[in-house]
Design goal:
By secondary structure, the protein is α+β, with helices and mostly antiparallel strands. Helix content is about 35%, strand content about 25%. Helix 1 packs antiparallel against helix 2, helix 2 runs antiparallel to helix 3 and helix 7 runs antiparallel to helix 8. It binds glycine.
């Protein structure tokens, strides 16, 4: 039996210069971390990750689900991925529209033959599954769009290790904001979100750079090949620093280690190790 472990993040750059938001972000993250840990104790890593991501998607403070940023044509296109380490299975949606919780559509795809669906077809598949039309736009994001405010980052993620030793990672995003319509972020790829039997990782930061680094899958492979989690994470982040990349990761190993590292300061995260909860 393992002691369940949990870590969640609210994205790099979620503050975007607005220092007054800092305490609200930390408070929400800590609350969601506590609720999600309770779920993890009652259920398993997969259910806890779905639950935690839904909470983060539903909080307009974060750039995922409700409160997602707009692409430069004024439309919200969201992406999400979930990976079950035990099953070695990834599923995700790319640039889905008018859905409340993109991660729940990714969850449905876990049980399908074709597990990653993009664009209009992703939205159609969601409707076929029975997901209702939902407008995730909030006023603050519309105002940012009217100001032509370009973003850089913003994502949410949850990684959990359950009592049976299974690791699951989930990541969801509204993208960077002001991007070319149809741009694909790292979140619905194995660079931004990955789990195997050895480690689970969720990344946040500039999606193109996370993809260039193959970040999440690289860390998990390094741990599978014998590196400690901290060593694997630090090495991957050091490699990224050499390119001046801007991103960070949260991660958990099969040994229950929790590790965060980043090339940029602006990541908000919270973890629960079974005894202590902390928020940064
Ligand atoms: N990491 C989020 C994005 O680049 O879209």
């Amino acid at each position: 039996m393992k002691i369940p472990k949990l870590i969640i993040h609210g994205g790099a750059g979620s503050l975007e210069g607005n220092v007054s938001k800092k305490e609200d972000l930390r408070k929400s993250l800590k609350n969601i971390c506590q609720l999600t840990y309770k779920k993890l104790l009652q259920t398993d890593a997969y259910s806890a990750v779905l639950f935690g991501i839904c909470q983060l998607e539903d909080d307009p403070l974060f750039n995922a689900g409700t409160g997602s940023k707009l692409q430069n044509d004024g439309r919200i296109r969201m992406s999400a991925g979930i990976m079950d380490g035990e099953k070695n299975k990834f599923s995700g949606v790319i640039n889905i529209q008018n859905i409340k919780n993109p991660i729940l559509v990714a969850d449905k795809l876990q049980f399908e033959k074709h597990t990653i669906i993009a664009g209009d077809k992703a939205t159609q598949v969601a409707r076929d599954f029975g997901f209702q039309q939902y407008n995730p736009l909030v006023q603050k994001r519309w105002d940012e769009h009217l100001r032509l405010q370009k973003g850089k980052t913003g994502t949410v993620g949850v990684v959990a290790l359950d009592k049976n030793g299974n690791i699951v990672a989930g990541t969801s995003t509204g993208g960077i904001g002001g991007e070319i319509p149809g741009r694909v972020s790292d979140s619905p790829t194995v660079a931004g979100n990955f789990a195997n039997k050895f480690a689970g990782i969720s990344a946040t930061g500039i999606g193109e750079q996370i993809v260039n680094s193959g970040t999440a899958v690289k860390i998990a492979t390094r741990v599978e090949d014998g590196m400690d989690l901290k060593e694997a994470v630090n090495k991957t982040i050091d490699d990224a620093k050499a390119f001046n990349y801007e991103f960070g990761v949260i991660s958990i190993s099969h040994k229950g280690e929790i590790c965060v590292d980043k090339t940029t300061d602006s990541i908000f995260y919270s973890w629960y190790d079974g005894e202590n909860i902390d928020v940064f």
